[in-house]
Design a protein that fits this description.
- 2 copies of one chain form a homodimer.
- With 264 residues, the first copy, chain A, is α+β, with helices and mostly antiparallel strands.
- Chain A has 2 domains: 103 residues, Alpha-Beta Plaits; 134 residues, 2-Layer Sandwich (Alpha-Beta Plaits).
- Chain A is 21% helix and 29% strand.
- In chain A, strands 1, 2, 3, 4, 5, 6, 8, 9, 10 and 11 form a 10-stranded mixed β-sheet that branches.
- In chain A, strand 2 and strand 3 form a beta hairpin.
- In chain A, helix 1 packs across helix 2.
- The radius of gyration of chain A is 19 Å and the shape is globular.
- Chain A starts with a strand and ends with a strand.
- At the A-B interface, strand 4, strand 7 and strand 12 of A face strand 4, strand 7 and strand 12 of B.
- Strand 12 of chain A pairs parallel with strand 7 of chain B.
Amino acid sequence: MRNVRVRLAYDGSEFYGWQRQEGFVSVQEAVEEALESLLGVHVTVHGAGRTDTGVHALGQVASFHVETRLDDNCLLFALNAHLPQAVVATDLETCGDAFQAQIDARGKRYLYLWRTTRFRPPFGTRFCAWVPDPLDLPLMRRAAAHLVGEHDFTTLANAGSPRNSNVRRITALRLIPKRESLGMIVAGNGFLYKMVRTIAGTLLEVGRGKLSPDVVPELLASCDRSRAGPTAPASGLYLVRVLYHESCFQHTTFGPRGRPGVFS
Amino acid sequence: MRNVRVRLAYDGSEFYGWQRQEGFVSVQEAVEEALESLLGVHVTVHGAGRTDTGVHALGQVASFHVETRLDDNCLLFALNAHLPQAVVATDLETCGDAFQAQIDARGKRYLYLWRTTRFRPPFGTRFCAWVPDPLDLPLMRRAAAHLVGEHDFTTLANAGSPRNSNVRRITALRLIPKRESLGMIVAGNGFLYKMVRTIAGTLLEVGRGKLSPDVVPELLASCDRSRAGPTAPASGLYLVRVLYHESCFQHTTFGPRGRPGVFS
């Protein structure tokens, strides 16, 4: 049996999240069914993190054990041939037997994307959230700075499944305006249920002038979810990267950024 | 009666092109119906150019005569409230009575957008075309250079409706790679039926090494459509801008780029 890890991009609006659930179409199920139709046996796929309904991925990582003569590159192509339109495996490699996509992850990076046009985006809000209000970016950045570091993030998470601790470390939180879009990039060692979307919703309240950036430390200390901003829509959220101690997908034929799609 | 011009963005995949046709949903019809439901009378809307089925617009221009007490800004908001999701009016202003969106246009600018990822884009090909093959960009640019200037473009257009002359002037034709995308920006004083998409398809053949850039002058001289590349899919094409001698939409509350959606 070979332990294989794969990097996946998907349109989350087509699925009820990552995790397999009876009666709902999930990304996990889509990948497992593709592998089953390819290899003729059921293969259980373990994802690095559960993305919620409607949340997209550019770099979800999953691992699974298979028995096949296909080399990594052939397996990657064959897997893509069996996956539905809305899921693509961008990289695949055989890894050490001990590798576990979820447990080994030392962190994750997410993108939250807003369109900041005056009128609703004609190309839809399937891949973004729309915010027509003027935003005060310096205020948002001041609030963001208060979130970086190690904190108890109970205030900024939905209850979800109980965990031992709600302390997490945010290593970076940047706001990047670009023409009529605003991106929030957040990286950390782990995220609670709906934490990224609540951070996005809270920073938006600050940007609109409805919440002072200076109350953020107090907000965190209160451990009271009702004091944070609303949860931003799933459509704007992308799981961009899962971070590991070992370097992954360095030796695949083409890296995610490495491939010159165009020779320039 | 006031002569009003409006700038429109739309998702072309929702429409059978710009022009009103019995039994098919068109952008023109959508705008006319929005105005009718707003003002209570039928208003005929004249577009600067007919976009085909599936072709998108970021800056289509249309003009129409109305009788209303609403000022430009209110009319813009009210129009957007009545337009379907896939059409947005980004700018609107009262203009000189002689202005005609189509006849006064001195040129247009289009974008053709490819995704150049190895595997099919998980976010779909509704707003782009997908080309997984490696492309030789210097060759494509050499071919593009042969198209700039005044030429008879019969070779690069579908028959469509007969015109007096197939001579057009391309003022700029640039290829812009960006990560895993490739954009083609083309500007000119006019474009024949499916000309931009045939240019895109032909440059792609050059990029793939199937057509030499040096045969382009001969191709143009032949006036033989069968010698050009295939017509690229409508989904990758955007009408970006209609150019006029007079400056348009300079005094609207917010320009198309002028609005600071985000204060940074």
